[in-house]
Amino acid sequence: MCLAFAALVMQTAGAQPVRVGSKSFTEAVILGDLVAQLVESAGYPAEHRAGLGGTTFLWNALLAGELDVYPDYTGTLIQEVLASEQLAGIDALREALATRGIRMTAPLGFNNTYALGMRADRADALGIRTITDLRAHPELAGGFSNEFMDRADGWPGLRDAYRLPHARVRGLDHDLAYRGIENGSIDFTDLYSTDAEIAYYNLRVIEDDAGFFPEYQAVVLYRADLEARVPEIDALLRRLEGRIDAPAMTRMNARAKQDRIPEKQVAADFLNTQILGVDAVEVAVESRAARLARHTREHLRLVLISLAAAILVAIPLGVLAARHDRAGAVILGLVGMIYTIPSLALLVFMIPLLGIGGPPAMVALFLYSLLPIVRNTHAGLKDIPLPLHESAEALGLAPAAKLWQVELPLASRSILAGVKTSAIINIGTATLGALIGAGGYGQPILTGIRLDDVGLILEGAVPAAVLALVAQALFDGAERWIVPRGLRLR
Question: 293-303 pLDDT, tens per residue?
């Protein structure tokens, strides 16, 4: 009886793992791994959806119940997420979160504040030590993380507070900004004070002499209803409180970014030496071949399901568009408009409806696949010579028989070309699904960019390119038995 009950509990827990999220920078991923491994050490299953994006993305996912836990920073929550409430202090922040069903740990022990930085030799040459000093050098080019470009506690507020005249500023990935600093394409950028790159690239942290940036104490947010599934969650997360100081966090960041140690291993080593005891957490590092196989399965799942759905919907729409000109104008205009929506925006639009992970990525890929198939089906049917239509009618074929026996075979080469185009586009666009936790070849690409690891980038980019070539070859072969012999290209 007890064994049966235990099995039932484990089965239920297995179906509902604790969903841990993290933002798309190394420190956040390490903190997410710390939380996930801490939960697993207590016997509960956990799933870490790493590198999901920016603050707004994870905050909304937490509110919607798509995530159960994620690490964040007090300054971000006060100045950005809940800025309209003008909260004063961490106690007010905790109360505001509680009204939304969200709980927050005490600070983990380090303040990862924003800062501005530039190469030390460049700063010395220009005599720049404070942010106020930047005012005398409007010619300098700034490159900031995209989130920093739009946040009230980022560039807009900083520029106004210091009356900075710089016009040559642009947004880019946070990790890429360091390379821009190194090669001189930008002069200064935003830093996180625990970034390992500060020492690695010999950067000068420019003094915030007006005290613009607030404290960004690292904390962990979690849904209050998580206690129903994990009664120990509060006690588990309290074990991290005050245990990670700034030097420790900087060392962990350096091990991941510079020593190329997987973030999971970095987190496990910290838990084993500082929190839980030796060998309390064991991490199985996935081999390159196993990662490639997993990413291939995820990528094929995204592409095949979305493409199959698009074929089933787009061909009938193309037929309808070809037979009715007014409806055709509306259909072609609508699928064309969808196709012009930026892929990242379309992925984000899907999240409130479908959550994060595979489903929103599949729906976005499905929508992107419609235009080539609809347009080629429409064009293939419209290009059938009039005498062939008249011959079919003279034979007395019913409209359905005429469509299946005459029109679709004659348009098959054009339709197949549209499907092939959609498939190849899908394979490339599916890499963006990793931004919302859908996996696939985009995962190693994004991780490689974040860790400045060309090998990881190629681990995703090369298989995606090979898969596109394989898809093209398969469709070229399919033409032999789909397209009537007389219509094949010689």
Answer: 999 999 999 99
